[in-house]
Amino acid sequence: MGKILRYITDDGLVSVTAIEGTDIVAEAKRIFGTTPVMTLALGRLLMGTAIMGDMLKEENGSITVRMNGGGQGGSLIAVSDFKGNPRGYAQVPGLLIMPDDNGQLDITGAVGSSGTFSVVKDFGAGEPYIGQIPIVKGNVSEDITAYYAVSEQIPTVVLLGVIFDKIWNFSRAGGLFIQLLPAADEREIEIIEKNLKEQPKIEAMLENGLSMEEICQKVMTGFNLELLSEDEVSYKCNCSLERVKRSLMTLDKGEIIKMANEEESIEVCCHFCDKKYNLSSQELLDLIK
Ligand SMILES: [Zn+2]
What we know:
About 35% of the residues lie in helices and about 30% in strands. It has 2 domains: about 230 residues, Hsp33 domain (3-Layer(bab) Sandwich), CATH 3.55.30.10; about 50 residues, CBS domain Like (Alpha-Beta Complex). By secondary structure, the protein is an alpha+beta fold. The longest helix has 19 residues. The strands form 3 sheets. The protein has a 5-stranded antiparallel sheet, sandwiched between helices. Strands 5-4-3-6-7 form a 5-stranded antiparallel sheet. Helix 1 crosses helix 2 and helix 9 packs antiparallel against helix 10. Strand 4 and strand 5 form a beta hairpin. The chain contains 10 helices and 12 strands. Bound molecules: zinc ion. The site of zinc ion has 6 residues, from loops.
């Protein structure tokens, strides 16, 4: 089980939201058979979107983050409910990009850096909020930072780590957002920047087995953190036969009749969890009524 931890500094100036994302990323890898570079890209997007979902204040809200960067991995999408339970999808989960000589995976090559990063916040009622910025980096973390700076004017540090063992088996994932609240000023920024320079990278801390609590304490050295909440989260799809039928109903009538005439039954596969739904030709025809 993953979890999301929310902290605020005791002076009320900085918030920190962290996710233990190992089980979420492992589940995505299991469903899609992602290669290391795509486990990294989709894993970061799932964790980032989960934190963004958890930040929604609206009960029953959801958030959808799409990256169309023109990279070799195609488009990436992640959706989270308001509790921070994500699901996601990448167009080319099996993309093979070898690590470079320094053992780095080319996430920007997979995601692409010339396209759009878009966010749709569905509040459960009324018009959704839609924000879109050009992709700045294609590494997910810095794109989320840019999104918050441009679209929401919230200074945000985004650290998202997905790590592998020596033979590139996925081993652990975790991440956190640091956000400055409106009354914060230069002093807080200086301390955080100093910590980011002096403390180990999130990947190293994950590798060394530090808990997300310990990692938050380290990156927030010099502040006192108060835990506001701790919630269990997991990779969660909300598909159902009913939803599959509703999406089929958006197809052209002629298209549905054609399918019903050609096949005894059709199989519809959920993009997000690979669950398969079978509909008989009669069920297809019933949709038209
Ligand atoms: Zn599903």
